[in-house]
Amino acid sequence: MMSATTITIEEFLEAAKEFVKKSEKVCDGWALKLDKTDIFKTYIKKDTFIECPDTTALYKIEYVIFYNLSYGVPSFSFNVWNSSGMLITLDDIRRMSFLQINQKDFYSVITQQEHPIFQRPYFIVHPCHTETLLAAFRSSSKNIIVTFLGLITPLIKLKLPLEFGYQ
Amino acid sequence: MANDREVLREIWDGKLPICFQLAQEEIMEIQQPDAFYVMVPRLSYFPLVTDKMKRHFLRYISQENSDSEMWLDYNGQPLKWHYPIGFLYDLLCGNDPQLPWHLTVHFTKFPEDVLLHCNNKDVVEAHFMSTVKEADVLKHRGQVMSTMQKKDHNQLWLGLQNDKFDQFWAINRRLMESHGDNEGFKHIPIKLYSDDGTCSQRLVSPKNNDGSRKTLQQMVAELYPDKHDVQLRTHGVIIPSDTPLQWLSEHMSYPDNFLHLCVF
Q1: Top-level CATH class of B7-106?
Q2: pTM of the model
Q3: Do B117 and A121 touch (CB under 8 A)?
Q4: Which family, according to UniProt (chain A) (predicted)?
């Protein structure tokens, strides 16, 4: 069902494939996980490690972008584990300044939820404003996922290589 | 509109008898604690109905664990508190009913890779309200929730939390209205669960392409073209396959405004 503000699963998949291609070119680590039996369970993900500058403790971070069926927009989710494999809580994440999450919006925008694809707890950025924001940029967007990540980065510092902006 | 008030009332009044027992390895007293029996509303959530039970068991566990997060399991399977109680029972015991429902209570080893954290009832409220909002996006592009006032949102939540049918439905009826000249919602908020717990969500229209009312049977044929004899259960009953989806959504949705159906 086409509408002016939402995107279809086909548009999402198209953008995801293109995005992953660009990522491979600059070795940014995003990978596409296609689910052939259930197209709605297709997603792209990136695993990365971050060292906390103060304690030199190492954390593993997993970013997942998937299609939110109800809102018809991409959704951003992530989890962080410490070096003993324990999941980091929302309060801990908020204190991790190296992730640079905007403090003001934090609790209203990021909540722990059951991930619709993995059915395990993930931190998910709430999609309710994504639709209006994406709509504003949609006509000028070359790739809806790059545009979408542009909306997320003020919230969570993802180092996105500039090359993603080029055709 | 949700007009069949007796059906709404009957579903609201659905209760389950539950027998809680403290996990053996957590008992720190010589005297064994008695099991804790209670009737709970099927439509509620465990964190809303377990305060008394928690107090009952607290004096039998090690003091150092008394502040840690309580969680429940059925047959070794952790129970996801963010699903309505009646739905959890239908999913896990639907094929093999046992009453009272025997659940085990834990205060240690929180299975953080399975369960969402729930430190207080505000977390339940936030989860509930965001699910109602999502359902409204499917039904009316989110217009009903966004035009409601904060006090209406509160009334919806308090109605559920305090088990007040009239208080809840005074607001919820607005979420069950069809808009425009449309006889029906844009999409039906529906989640289908297999018995292994996997959930699939689809955009489901309450109408067929020719404009006629879509029945449960017709939806099943669309979603599971290869399967025969698919049956769906909710609120402890198997739904007749000729039930129109629009009626089902208005009357058999959980308070979070979603139909949670178990496929078997």
Answers
A1: alpha beta
A2: 0.92
A3: yes
A4: Belongs to the ATG10 family.
